[in-house]
Amino acid sequence: MKEAQTDLCTRYIRIFIVVSCYWVVSIATVFVNKTLLSGQSVALEAPLFITWFQCVVSFTICFSLSNTGGIPGVFNFPTGTPWRLEVVRKVIPLSLMFTLMIATNNLCLKYVGVSFYYIGRSLTTVFNVLFSWILLGQTTSLRCILCCAFVIFGFYLGVDQESLLDSFSLIGTIYGVVGSLMLSLYSIYTKKVLPSVNQEVWLLSYYNNAYSIILFLPLIIMNGEVHVLWNYNNFDSLCFWVQMVIGGVCGFAIGYVTSLQIKVTSPLTHNISGTAKACAQTIMATQWYSETKSSLWWTSNAIVLASSAMYARFKQIEMEVNSRRPVPEEKKSLV
């Protein structure tokens, strides 16, 4: 009995530490990226170049871990190379979605405040339902659809209140919507591509960052950032490169702690943790930047957060019910 209680206590302590690490790394990543993209200390109007550099840092870390086999006693990094033609053919479409996803997310963060960032990207759940129906033929229950309707209402209310406070950015909100759309597509297609990399999430992250380094180059040119980079005067500043490397390390770390949180808890707990983290992040942002928000603005956040959490809970209940249903005889051979 004492051994069982000790094991349970150890497990709870481990879960607490992992969830805490996720909160700290995730919130720090958002604030670090906001400083890089909009702060006066960097003052570089080249958001896609900053995002590209973060991919370079993530790729460098993955490449090093791949060569060393991982971190002894912590985790083993799967073996694989992104430069095989067969791998490129299978993964490059997903990497294109990955590139557009992180590009639009950072562009959204550049133009909107951290406090509004979660609302600006809150339509991911809605797009998940829509694309699951269009691409996979999966239907959704009425109560989940109602949750999506409340998310849309909360998003609309948040945009309306943000515009009344004279802090609304149309281009930032558009990037947020596109980022939500790309995140939804990326999540769906990840399930189709993972078997090509032996279900190794780390290997997929390694490949995505490798291909994104190349895919970002034409986007940087089309966004007119070459001229900005050519005339930038702080490339010889140690402080600038330290901030850039910290941003890249944060980008890599958020992928690791997200996977770790899902591993030690569950996808549902991860969703709930992410929702609660977004609430804390919003409150911290309003205090950090000394922002004053209206009651309806806070109501919009509460609606989106509560609706997203309820959607995750309803989907978990549905998955549990479906897992208990008996499999027909004619389909058993396919399972």
From TrEMBL:
InterPro entries: EmrE-like (IPR037185), Sugar_P_trans_dom (IPR004853), TPT_transporter (IPR050186)
Membrane topology: Multi-pass membrane protein
SUPFAM superfamilies xref list: Multidrug resistance efflux transporter EmrE (SSF103481)
Organism placement in taxonomy: Eukaryota, Metazoa, Ecdysozoa, Arthropoda, Hexapoda
Domain Sugar phosphate transporter: start-end pairs: 14-279
Major subcellular site: membrane
Keyword hit for Transmembrane helix: yes
Protein name: GDP-fucose transporter 1
Record field: transmembrane: 12-31, 51-75, 96-119, 131-156, 168-189, 209-226, 238-258
